[in-house]
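Milestone 3.1: sequence recovery, worked example.
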């Protein structure tokens, strides 16, 4: 489905006249995954269109999340506030207030645990009315079911109180918010329903287990596969939500085809994911920030590698990949294969540069590796000793020069340094140096022997040998400001790198390359990701904007790995001026993905729902 096939849009301002918009998602005030970024970043642009008084978000109430993100209100004067009070009278635990983000939108939060005593009744009616059978021992499904029932009751009470005379749009995101939809339609509530699936659960499972997923897509028996992977209840919810919506949407053309075969309904509108680009804008500071944060990465690299051997940091390129640990779906397997080939190509061609590639993901671990922490601490000791010597020698040099009455001679600096400081520095350096190879992984993994990234690196002997042109740092935890190894947040880390690598096999959209673009950092993605597919159809000269795309639709694994290795090989040969030009081009392209532009696709979905 191409953009030209989408429903024609009327004036977006007209869509929101006399309309109240509710967006319902498990990630409202609850940071779980990418949908949190979608919802949160979109809020300011939506408020500008429909007004704060006509826009409400609905999500689950978790005390630990709400404490930092939510302010309860004392104003219950409007229809929504009155409905909240009515629900409290009926025994529901409902919280009403503002989400502490840009725009401060109104939110209604339902405590999933407050009606657990009614779960049996709720599950029975889902089975009786909608043929959805739910287990009673799944904790997440219990929470989602309880939340969904309360959302449906909220809309029922809102309408029974006479507040649904004006047009109301309820936009549900993903299966975890989709349970109320069949109930809303069965009760014939005067509400126009939009449902967005950001990925199909069954598609994710199938792609992880079938290397020819896209070729086989049209031939899967969804019921058989859902039962095989033991995800039938969730798939039933997903299908009921998709078929119950007045307007069904998804985030990319890639996922639209998946929905057609696995959910049995083709989306009417594609709603690409955007960002609030103004949060990333740094005007003319992009090069300065890159240099600043690259300096912090340099500090880590020196502490991690230079105790074993050194290389020229001015000739070092930083690659990174990040995201959920899905070895095949996220393209970690392809990235590793391409890096191994790049290592050989650089050695064979005699390229006088070093690549350090960071794998930033989340895997179970017990602790940061003590040797990695110790090397970092010893590096800090050396730094402090050097600063102490610098201060001491500077003072003595000043006194020596100004007090010498004869002809000027530059003094021997070693004579100005006390033996104690010489010995102290020597002791620090000797205790820091080692003949052991730098660690590939920074943490002690719980399943070290079964980790697919580590097993590939061991098999390929890509283990940070001194002669390797490509070095690997596998960091199985997300980067944030409290991280003792990097001491910066993820967005700063991204700005300090040179290239992001995200050649996903299964990726309904893909925020990581978009966030790189917004930060002025070139990236590689694939034509099987929603973002990559969108780029191919909307940016003919995408490589000039620092957006490189691996062809995974038409190439097998070996061919795609070869193509990716070639892309990386060309990149490492770029000079500094060319890399600066790419960063500037990235920044220039990023406004296209601001919600002020991409929000028009949501307007199309709402227009379609209102006219259906």
């Amino acid at each position: 489905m191409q953009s030209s096939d989408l429903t024609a849009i009327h004036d977006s301002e007209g869509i929101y006249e006399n309309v109240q918009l509710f967006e319902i998602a498990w990630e409202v005030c609850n940071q779980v995954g990418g949908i949190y970024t979608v919802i949160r970043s979109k809020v300011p642009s939506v408020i500008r269109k429909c007004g704060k008084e006509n826009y409400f978000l609905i999500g689950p109430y978790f005390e630990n999340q709400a404490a930092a993100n939510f302010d309860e209100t004392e104003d219950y004067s409007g229809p929504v506030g009155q409905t909240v009070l009515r629900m409290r009278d009926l025994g529901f635990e409902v919280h009403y207030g503002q989400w502490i983000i840009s725009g401060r939108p109104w939110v209604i939060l339902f405590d999933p645990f407050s009606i657990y005593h009614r779960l049996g009744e709720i599950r029975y009616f889902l089975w009786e009315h909608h043929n959805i059978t739910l287990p009673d021992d799944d904790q997440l499904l219990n929470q989602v079911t309880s939340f969904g029932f309360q959302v449906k009751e909220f809309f029922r009470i809102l309408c029974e109180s006479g507040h649904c005379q004006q047009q109301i749009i309820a936009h549900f995101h993903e299966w975890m918010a989709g349970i109320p939809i069949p109930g809303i339609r069965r009760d014939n509530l005067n509400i126009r329903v939009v449902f967005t699936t950001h990925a199909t659960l069954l598609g994710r499972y199938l792609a992880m287990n079938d290397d020819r997923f896209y070729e086989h897509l049209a031939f899967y028996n969804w019921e058989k596969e859902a039962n095989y992977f033991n995800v039938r209840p969730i798939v039933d919810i997903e299908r009921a939500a998709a078929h119950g919506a007045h307007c069904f949407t998804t985030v990319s053309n890639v996922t639209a085809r998946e929905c057609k075969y696995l959910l049995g309904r083709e989306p009417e509108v594609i709603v690409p994911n955007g960002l609030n680009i103004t949060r990333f804008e740094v005007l003319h500071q992009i090069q300065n920030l890159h240099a600043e944060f690259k300096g912090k990465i340099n500090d880590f690299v020196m502490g991690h590698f230079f105790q074993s051997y050194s290389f020229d940091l001015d000739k070092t390129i930083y690659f990174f990949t990040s995201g959920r640990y899905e070895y095949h779906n996220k393209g970690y397997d392809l990235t590793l294969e391409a890096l191994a080939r790049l290592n050989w190509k650089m050695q064979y061609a005699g390229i006088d540069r070093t690549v350090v590639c960071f794998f930033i993901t989340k895997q179970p671990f017990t602790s940061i590796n003590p040797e990695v922490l110790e090397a970092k601490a010893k590096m800090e000791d050396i730094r402090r000793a050097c600063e102490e010597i610098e201060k001491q020698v500077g003072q003595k040099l000043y006194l020596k020069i100004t007090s010498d009455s004869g002809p000027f001679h530059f003094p021997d600096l070693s004579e100005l340094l006390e033996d104690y400081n010489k010995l102290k520095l020597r002791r620090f350096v000797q205790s820091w140096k080692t003949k052991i190879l730098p660690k590939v992984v920074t943490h002690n993994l719980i399943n070290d022997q079964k980790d697919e990234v580590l097993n590939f690196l061991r098999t390929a002997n890509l283990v940070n040998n001194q002669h390797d042109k490509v070095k690997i740092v596998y960091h199985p935890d997300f980067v944030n400001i409290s991280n003792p190894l990097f001491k910066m947040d993820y967005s700063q880390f991204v700005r300090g790198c040179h290239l992001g690598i995200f050649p996903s096999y299964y990726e309904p959209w893909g925020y990581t390359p978009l966030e790189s673009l917004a930060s002025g950092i070139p990236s590689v993605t694939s034509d099987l990701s929603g973002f990559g597919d969108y780029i191919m159809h909307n940016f003919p000269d995408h490589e000039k904007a620092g957006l490189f795309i691996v062809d995974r639709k038409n190439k097998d694994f070996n061919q795609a790995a070869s193509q990716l290795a070639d892309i990386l090989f060309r990149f490492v040969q770029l000079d500094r001026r060319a890399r600066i030009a790419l960063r500037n081009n990235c920044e220039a392209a990023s406004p296209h993905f601001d919600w002020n532009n991409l929000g028009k696709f949501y307007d199309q979905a709402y227009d379609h729902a209102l006219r259906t």
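The first strand starts at residue 19 and ends at 24. Confidence is low (pLDDT under 50) at residues 1-10.
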